[in-house]
Write a structure and sequence with these properties.
Blueprint: H1 3-12, E1 30-34, E2 45-50, E3 56-60, E4 63-67, E5 72-75, E6 88-93, E7 99-103, E8 108-112, E9 115-119, E10 130-135, E11 141-145, E12 148-153, E13 156-159, E14 171-176, E15 182-186, E16 189-192, E17 204-206, E18 217-222, E19 228-232, E20 235-239, E21 250-252, E22 258-264, E23 270-275, E24 279-283, E25 286-290, E26 301-306, E27 312-316, E28 319-324, E29 328-330, E30 343-346, E31 352-355, E32 359-362, E33 369-372, E34 381-386, E35 392-396, E36 401-405, E37 408-412, E38 423-428, E39 434-438, E40 441-446, E41 449-453, E42 464-469, E43 475-479, E44 482-487, E45 490-492, H2 495-499, E46 505-510, E47 516-520, E48 525-529, E49 532-536, E50 549-552, E51 557-562, E52 565-570, H3 571-579, E53 587-591, E54 610-611, E55 617-619, E56 626-628, E57 645-652, E58 655-657, E59 663-665, E60 672-678, E61 687-694, E62 701-704, E63 708-711, E64 717-727, E65 730-743, H4 751-814, H5 820-846, H6 858-873, E66 877-882, H7 890-909, E67 916-922, E68 926-933, H8 940-945, H9 951-962, E69 966-971, E70 977-984, H10 988-996
Parallel strand pairs: 59-65, 66-67
Antiparallel strand pairs: 1-28, 2-3, 3-4, 4-5, 6-7, 7-8, 8-9, 10-11, 11-12, 12-13, 14-15, 15-16, 16-17, 18-19, 19-20, 20-21, 22-23, 23-24, 24-25, 26-27, 27-28, 29-56, 30-31, 31-32, 32-33, 34-35, 35-36, 36-37, 38-39, 39-40, 40-41, 42-43, 43-44, 44-45, 46-47, 47-48, 48-49, 50-51, 51-52, 52-53, ...
Helix pairs in contact: 4-5, 4-7, 4-9, 6-7, 7-9
């Protein structure tokens, strides 16, 4: 058939359903597959269960998995000693929260309160190949094995088959019906009455169609209508409720493959998982096949399960499959494998044109699509546009643009005036002009003539991506390097074109308030309104910084497509965010996990998406056109509740720490890792997290999709870790988990240790201060002592010597010149006295001491002193001694001599005595000296207290006290004076030296 005729038929005839592909009619479910590269230990998935925390537990041939919707936690023999066999064949969660897992040859596992326990032969199980584990409504746990049926009683398993009432059998399925009867299937089918499975209860055996192993039972299920379905090796059989009293199971002819799994969903549909025929669904009396994604291809289904979020999970031999009803799904097209869908155009007649490697037209009812041939052989269509006259403009990749109207076709290429043959966008303006954006410039078709515009004519850049006519009639052209505005027949340069000069503008939209929105490749979303350019990007809440298309629905919601999905945001929220940078808009993300796995949204060729009159949103992708039914529209899924955020693991200084309420951490290095999650088994792409460690962080940390918080060099103290989860489209609605943390400090960092150290330091400072004061005081006392010593020595030597010389000189002066011998004698005596005084003064200043080994005995010294004093004063001075003389320390000897001489000097100088007696008493350890005169006497108390007078008495007392001796003066006016002192023969310094040695 001629292509032109074919196009005429397509444009005028109603569309017919293709029916050539099993995927032609969408089933309303989106698919997502996980394999080993996504976290599975092995691809064979055999069982499912869901715990109270909404975690999905998955039994695989390579271990037991816990899944929160984002990450898998694997339990196997390598990290869990209780697991001795990694192949998990069946799972169930009992009402006490325990997870029971049947293994393929190593008994039964129970997981409760974070602890695994194994049940095997020692616990009553005579066979370790567990094929079914089930809890009935009474709370009784049943275990079916390759050899026997067991009931859990106490803490052991009791075998109940192999009796007269219940024959011996291999068990692969156990289920309870609405009457409380127990159906057991394996090598046969038994119905154990509602008498709770006592050994005395007689079981009824049902015979299935088929002989031998073909009738072996793999699964049993009673649906809501009371029908009992039995999956066997040879297919599916059922027992209607009316036939139950004495009837037989009937074969379901539509299912001929081994039925491994049966599931009734909340809508009442029956799901059938088979070996070799994939997944079938029975609803409204019809069987339909539910296909898995092309990759990985699999027709072997081992388990089926519906979670609390109404996702359908299929365990397959080649991976894990999730089927979810979401607002976003991919519309399958015939013969469209591996096609790159670039544009979706809404025809005014209600149909959709989808351009890709092939060209398709979807009928207005959205239940069929046809493959439309290109306008010429070998031509690849990029986009479609219908103008107001009804003519079709078909943009191609390298063959220019075709115009189809009333069976007539015109092709425009570079040869007849088109600026370039690679078409990016087509648009009609209000004056009837057709604007054509290409890879190398812009063309305008008006009244049958073409005009071209390039950079020399004012175009911002040659590569055109999008076109828009605004409410004023101006044409906006988005290019790979800036935006141009065509107004009144010329290109206009203004603030917005200058500010967008370096941007890659792929989408332009005008809102009802006159704002112009620009979608860029890499710089987010921009709004130009009232002379101000506002910017929105991922740090301010957008899902992506690359915007391929901008659409606005009747509710004022902007739909933005980008490489990682499609997002919806209220324009009012963006307007608020433009005025308040702290405001966070509510963004709903329809990500890749909401649609077909590995979906890539496309852009760069217009139109890269469209809105239909029914409110549907369509975007092109590599898997076909993506359709989104907005919330509130018929067929849209219900809003999802916000999942509870949970703290899963805490690692302190590289060690896992068990979680139990408040966390008390021993002293360490300050490294803290907290892993958290939110359990949602649907897509988590819209979930965002933020956390804060109170006591350390000053504000929230936006973690976006990251599932961990990391801290280093954390000081000891009291903290509270808070983590919140929220949806992008509901940033103010959050769920939160809190973990109090007490990080104990090292001993040296505790307050009491610091206090003790502070007190110790204060005591040390005080001690040093007191020592310093003592040293200063000692030095001061030493200075005073030395000063006093010099004063005493000067008084007892120099002053007394000078006084003696003065007396001699006075005597010489009083002698008549006629007596030369006497004068000469006194003069010689004076000279000797002067020399002796000088020597004594020198010794006094330098504190010289005579060597004790060569010094004369103290008595002799006192005798010499008395003789000299007598000669000088002409007063007799007598010396007498008693006791055995003992050697004295030089210091003691010197001071005794000085004190005695001062006493004698005072007697002859001041007392006007006519006689002086010195009495010396030697004791073994002390020396007593008494000096007595018969002078005029004095008042000792008055003499000592009078300032500046009688320094000799003070000096004598100080010398005696320094030696540790006693000093006493007794005197009466007119009756003479008696001075007595007693000192030890060893000085205190000498005694200290001996004790230290």
């Amino acid at each position: 058939m001629d292509l032109r005729l074919t196009w005429a038929i397509v444009l005028t005839a109603p569309l017919l359903a293709s029916g050539s592909d099993s995927r032609a009619l969408p089933d309303g479910y989106t698919r997502r597959v996980w394999q080993t590269q996504d976290g599975l230990p092995e691809n064979t998935v055999q069982a499912f269960a869901q715990s109270a925390g909404n975690y999905l537990w998955i039994g695989t041939s390579g271990g037991l998995l816990r899944f929160d919707g984002e990450r898998f936690a694997v339990f196997d023999h390598e990290n869990t000693p209780a697991i001795r066999e990694d192949s998990i064949f069946c799972l169930t969660v009992t009402r006490d929260g325990s997870l029971w897992a049947g293994t393929d040859g190593r008994g039964l596992l129970r997981y409760r309160n974070g602890v695994f326990r194994t049940y095997s032969a020692r616990d009553g199980l005579s066979n370790d190949f567990i094929r079914s584990v089930y809890e009935d409504r009474a709370g009784t746990l049943w275990a079916g094995t390759d050899d026997g049926l067991f009931r859990f009683q106490g803490d052991r398993f009791l075998r109940i088959d192999g009796t007269a009432a219940i024959p011996r059998l291999a068990v692969h399925a156990v289920r309870q019906d609405r009457n409380g009867d127990l159906w057991v299937g394996g090598s046969t089918v038994l119905l154990i009455p509602a008498a709770r499975g006592r050994e005395s209860d007689t079981a009824r055996e049902f015979h299935l169609e088929g002989l031998g192993s073909v009738a072996r039972v793999k699964s049993i299920l009673e649906t809501g209508d009371g029908t009992v379905w039995v999956g066997t090796v040879s297919g599916l059989q059922r027992l209607p409720p009316a036939a139950r009293p004495g009837g037989r199971f009937e074969v379901v002819p539509e299912i001929t493959s081994t039925v491994r799994a049966l599931l009734e969903d909340r809508d009442g549909s029956l799901w059938i998982g088979s070996i070799g025929a994939g997944i079938m669904r029975y609803a409204n009396g019809r069987f339909t096949r539910v296909t898995a994604p092309d990759a990985p291809p699999s027709s072997t289904v081992l388990a089926l399960f519906q979670d609390n979020e109404q996702n359908i999970w299929a365990g397959m031999q080649t991976g894990l499959l999730r089927l979810s009803r979401t607002a976003m799904n991919t519309f399958p097209l015939p013969e469209a494998a591996n096609a790159d869908f670039g544009t979706v155009y809404p025809d005014p007649d209600g149909s959709l044109w989808v351009a890709s490697t092939h060209l398709y037209r979807i009928n207005p009812r959205r239940d069929a699509a046809v493959l439309v041939p290109p306008p010429a052989p070998g031509v690849r269509v990029r986009n479609i546009y219908r103008d107001r006259s009804g003519a079709f403009w078909i943009g191609t990749e390298g063959d220019g643009v075709f115009r189809e109207k009333d069976g007539a076709r015109t092709q425009f290429t570079k040869r007849n005036g088109l600026v370039n043959d690679f078409i990016r966008a087509v648009m009609e303006t209000r004056d009837g002009s057709i604007w054509i954006g290409t890879d190398e410039g812009l063309s305008r078709w008006h009244d049958g003539a073409l005009s071209s515009y390039r950079e020399p004519e004012g175009l911002a850049y040659f590569s055109v991506r999008t076109l828009l006519e605004d409410s004023r009639g101006d044409v906006w052209i988005g290019t790979e390097r800036g935006v141009s505005r065509f107004s009144d027949g010329r290109f206009v340069q203004d603030d917005v074109t200058r500010q967008l000069r370096s941007q890659k503008v792929w989408a332009i939209h005008e809102d009802s308030h006159g704002g112009i929105w620009f979608g860029t490749r890499g710089s987010g979303l921009l709004r130009w309104r009232q002379g101000k350019l506002s910017s929105f990007s991922t740090p301010r809440g957008l899902a992506s910084d690359s915007i391929y298309q901008i659409l606005e629905d009747r509710a004022g919601t902007l739909w933005l497509s980008g490489p990682n999905g499609i997002s919806a945001v209220a324009r009012e929220d963006l307007d608020k965010a433009a005025d308040d940078p702290a405001f966070r808009p509510a963004v709903t993300l329809f990500g890749l996990s909401d649609g077909v796995e590995a979906t890539q949204i496309y852009g760069g060729v217009a139109p890269a998406g469209c809105l239909t009159s029914a409110g549907e949103v369509w975007f092109p992708s590599n898997r076909g056109p993506v359709r989104i039914i907005p919330p509130g529209a018929d067929g849209a899924p219900h809003a999802e509740s916000l999942p509870q955020v949970v703290i899963e693991q805490v690692v302190v200084d590289g060690r896992n720490v068990p979680l139990s309420g408040r966390l008390v951490v021993p002293p360490g290095d300050g490294r803290l890792e907290i892993d958290y999650s939110a359990v949602r088994l649907r897509s988590q792409e819209r979930l965002r997290f933020r956390y804060m460690l109170e006591g350390f962080d000053h504000d929230w940390t936006d973690a976006l999709r990251r599932r961990g918080a990391y801290y280093t060099n954390l000081p000891p103290g009291q903290y509270r870790f808070r983590v919140q989860a929220f949806e992008m489209n509901m940033p103010q609605s959050v769920t939160e988990a809190i973990l109090p943390i007490h990080w104990r400090p090292h001993l040296y960092r505790t307050p009491w240790f610091a206090a003790v150290c502070g007190l110790t330091l204060l005591a040390a400072v005080l001690a040093v201060h007191r020592l310093r004061l003592r040293q200063v005081h000692a030095r001061f006392q030493a200075v005073l002592g030395e000063r006093s010593r010099i004063a005493r020595e000067m008084h007892d030597t120099v002053i007394q010597g000078c006084a003696g010389v003065s007396a001699l000189l006075e005597g010489i002066a009083s002698i008549d010149a006629q007596e030369p011998p006497s004068r000469k004698e006194l003069l010689d005596c004076a000279r000797s006295q002067v020399r002796a005084t000088v020597d004594e003064a020198r010794r006094a200043v330098w504190n010289w001491r005579q060597n004790g080994a060569t010094s004369p005995e103290i008595g002799l010294l006192l005798g010499q002193m008395a003789q000299e004093m007598g000669q000088t004063s002409h007063i007799p001075v007598e010396v007498e001694s008693a006791g055995k003389p003992v050697p004295l320390d030089p210091e003691v000897e010197h001071d005794v001599l000085m004190v005695t001489r001062e006493a004698v000097y005072n007697a002859v100088r001041h007392a006007q005595a006519s006689q002086v007696r010195i009495h010396v008493q030697f004791d073994p350890d002390a020396l007593s000296v008494k000096v007595v005169d018969n002078g005029r006497g004095f008042d000792p108390v008055q003499a000592i207290s009078t300032p500046g007078e009688h320094f000799g008495l003070v000096g004598m007392r100080e010398r005696t006290k320094r030696l540790g001796g006693l000093f006493e003066v007794r005197s009466t006016l007119g009756k003479g004076t008696q001075l007595e002192f007693r000192v030890p023969v060893r000085s205190p310094a000498s005694l200290r030296l001996q004790s230290s040695q």
